Task: structure prediction
Amino acid sequence: MSVQKFIFLLAAVIISLPSLGQSQNRKAEEQKLMELSREWAKAAQGGTTEEITSYWSENAVLMTPDQGKLVGKEQLTAMVDASMDIPGFEIGWEPQEARVAKSGDLGYVIAHKYVKVPDEAGVVNTFYFIEVGIWEKQNDGNWKNTIDIYNPDPSINTVMN
Result:
């Protein structure tokens, strides 16, 4: 191997090392977002209002097909409290994929979500949604959901893959 080829090869390896590290860090952060989403879904199954709302940032925005736009912890807490007072109400989701930006401070999770809610006769109906949650890394290094949007998706009939 000539010296020029060796230098070129060495330079290529050195140049690619930082991006390899970034890629591995992003994959780890994406996995962290998947785990956080699953933890949050578990909290939504039986946690306290404080546990459930702890995953949202202070100025988080939730946009749903039936409640419009809710902004901030106060409105989100009121919505969670009201939901918990509905007999038979249940919500859950399973994250399907997560991505983190190259900057490492912004990411999203796409999830399949269901909501069980009783109608006027007390019959519990299940509705399925596709959801995207945008997460921001906070100054303390923790991820918080800042924007959560979900819409009905007739192609979904389970939250699992």
